[in-house]
Amino acid sequence: MFGRSTGDTGVKRREFITLLGGAAAWPLAARAQQPASSRKIGLLHPGESTVVSTRIVAIREGLNDPDNNRDSGIEIIMRLADGDISRLPALATDLVNNHVDAIVAAAPAAVQAAAHATTSIPVIAIDLESDPVANGFVASLARPGRNITGVFLDFPDFSAKCLQLLIESVPTLSGIGLLWDPSTGTLQLKSVEAAAQGFGITVQVFEARRAADIAEAFYTLDRSRIQGLLLLSSPLIAGNPQLVADLTIRRNLPTISLFPDIARAGGLLGYGPDIQNLYRQIGVMARKVLQGAKVTELPVERPTRFQLVANLQTARLIGITLPPAILLRADEVIE
Known about the structure:
seven-stranded mixed sheet
């Protein structure tokens, strides 16, 4: 009554083995078909929440699929160092332990921390200060070859271009200060020092590792013969535009930075990439990774939009007359 033919048993056995084989693939298939609402991206940033909140908006704009024009529903887990970069390695490890699907790492110290924390989770970097190949983050710009890609400026002479713009704006300059965050490395510092030597300009370097150091540098400038200040690229500088602008006006000091937002806040000149657009660009790259793009084959990108912002209000306050050539080249003039 309960017997089955040998042929029927063979068929059932083959079906059972096939079912087992399919079951073994379930975890991988489930991960590949994971709904967007359950995906998680970690954001590793050296700054504070007041700075990062606007960046989150831009990342989400990049993450959202333009085809359906709806919120991606992807969870963003923030880990912020609040200005203390020594915390970044532990914060990176925490994101790995949270099983995020990708990590957005802002600034060289954050990229390094994420690189040490994982070799399997994709890391999408936003780094305006490093050479990604020389630093070992990627094998090449076209084919990263490991779990890191992202947006890198990778153009150390860009800071030297800022120096040239400052000299054009204040032709009487004979000495300038360089505000430098050591955590960003020496690439841009060496480039500007070499350019200053070519222009016959003396240079004095001021280190800034935290916001209080920025104010201290301006106070020190009062006791020197420095006639202008170039603020080298750093998340610390980018995260304190109003502080820098206020000190610029208070000390009657011509300044230029790679962050146009500082000029909008009251600095004299800003020439560099649109930071919000960079985070939007990063969001798009992260979306590609979540949709299945291999991070090892996702080419490194560069900033696509640069702006020169000149603040005429500040120029008048500090007694500077900006040349017509600078105003004509400016993308934005604040009057």
